[in-house]
Design goal:
Two copies of one chain form a homodimer. With 310 residues, chain A is an alpha/beta fold. The first copy, chain A, has twelve helices and ten strands. In chain A, helix 7 links the parallel strand 4 and strand 5. In chain A, helix 2 packs across helix 3 and helix 3 packs across helix 12. The two termini of chain A are 36 Å apart. The interface between A and B is large, with 66 and 67 residues.
């Protein structure tokens, strides 16, 4: 039996001395020219060519960042965009990341009524003992989920946490510019996202690992530092998955308040800032740029965590 | 250039005299035994077998319900569950439904930050003129989306409405038991879902067709009749997509208030109540049960719309 996700995560952060999550957002137009050209020359179908380019790119990125990252976070939209071959590339990324010793957070942000959420949980975290649901390294360790449906839409994912050592990150306060339109609306004197936070605490209450954190985490954007600090108070035992550093504008220093004195409690994601660190698709030695960007952010996060320690 | 989605929908409802949407939720265990057995005998890989069973089942269901339904609504979770072959089956369902003259609402409930939402919009509604994004009958006419990210997560879908005559249905008040946990929280004297409703009205304001309704619709559950009536007042020019009739407990009579005097304005979805109308997977003549269930609900909805007319 696998350890609870929360503990596997704590162990990865400690052993790698890294809170870095590298987001795999393989936007096709930004991939290195040589990678796209090779894929196009070996595949006639445009969707298969795109998927092949993404597979080759992901393999390189995973190899370069593996020493510096605790996890990768493939964003399924950039795979789904290419249909069935794209979804196969998504699975390949998961398998390859596992082979490289990385945890995988499937960034799927699904949310639906109970029976449908169950199908999503089985799609991404592995099914029950159904003969038709083979297991294997192609399932993510954790996924992101949307809370809009309330408890019964989350329940099937909680079962996966309990029965299959999976992890969850529930959207609480996102990193985009218009996040506040709904998420900050005032409900009984508190912003809506704090009500969501209290649900997340309740959903994860019985699912804490020996590290002290729950396997039910929260997505909290780095672009809203005041909310981040306040949410840390509301959710002291919750792993935070923090997007918004890099391309979205926040810095490593902004996320300091999310860490505890041992440097645990927060995972910080950067996607475009790392995987496209080389700038132009024709840049030479793009792999080195990716590697150095990962190393640099890993180091910056380590400093931020140390400075934040009381 | 295609007509706006809102007008294509109005035309389908009028010509079929039907407000029925048949939800394709192909839960594998409920499929007719003969369909599963045939697929299993011709495919070794369990995911390919599942996808083949779903394809055969969908083809039969689409043929049986086409005379009575305005649209079908494939729920992508039940396809995604089977990986790349499942996603191929989803595309086949879309293509086949189009061939049968049905509109297709992709029930994807995606929601994310802008660039990611753009990838989802291109995955399901067709891409821009990018050489790598081929067009075709495999794209849905409309999709369901989650509003939690606010305007910038919706914007790429609005572009698809404007540029490619697509439709949207934004989650406002869902049909599940715990929907109210977040959606009914009080915000300045109104439930949260009414604030979402006012966003939906704003997003769809410039996108009204000649039928009077906008191509930006709302998902409003039939299981909350009081909220349904109130939301009709808040959103007089918004197409409602109404789940919750059938397996989830609501009846055709519950949705009467959603229709206008011409019988327009609302689409009513039933999934399990129609596609699994035959009950047991070993039931003989299951296709006939599906057909009759679709015909019956179509008729009940017609009666409900007529009685609701002022």
């Amino acid at each position: 039996m696998k350890l609870p996700f929360a503990d596997r995560l704590a162990s990865a952060v400690r052993s790698k001395q890294s809170s870095l999550v590298v987001g795999l957002d393989p936007q096709i137009a930004k991939l290195p020219e040589e990678v796209r050209a090779h894929a196009a020359s070996t595949h006639d179908d445009p969707r298969e060519a795109a998927a092949a380019a993404i597979e080759a790119f992901d393999a390189a990125v995973i190899e370069e960042v593996a020493p510096f990252a605790a996890a990768v976070k493939p964003q399924i939209a950039y795979y789904e965009q290419w249909g069935p071959p794209g979804l196969a590339a998504f699975e390949h990324a998961v398998v390859r990341a596992h082979e490289a010793g990385l945890l995988v957070i499937g960034d799927i942000k699904r949310g639906d009524i109970g029976p449908t959420a169950e199908a999503y949980a089985s799609a991404h975290l592995g099914g029950a003992s159904d003969e038709l649901t083979p297991g294997g390294g192609r399932y993510a360790d954790a996924v992101t989920v949307n809370p809009y449906f309330g408890t019964d839409g989350i329940q099937p994912f909680l079962h996966a946490v309990r029965d299959r050592a999976a992890g969850l990150f529930v959207l609480v306060r996102t990193s985009n510019a218009s996040a506040g339109e709904l998420q900050d609306l005032p409900v009984r004197g508190q912003p809506l996202h704090e009500h969501v936070a209290s649900r997340v605490v309740a959903w994860g209450h019985d699912l804490r690992g020996t590290c002290g954190y729950s396997s039910v985490g929260a997505v909290v954007g780095a672009t809203a530092p005041r909310e981040l600090a306040r949410l840390r108070e509301c959710m002291p035992h919750t792993w935070f998955l923090i997007p918004g550093v890099g391309a979205q504008g926040a810095t490593a220093a902004d996320v300091g308040p999310a860490f505890d004195r041992d440097g645990l409690g927060a995972l910080v994601n950067s996607s475009r800032g790392i995987i496209f660190a080389y700038g132009s698709p024709t840049a030479p030695d793009w792999r080195r740029s990716v590697r150095e960007a990962a190393r640099r952010l890993r180091d910056e996060l380590r400093t931020a965590a140390l400075q934040a320690a009381p």
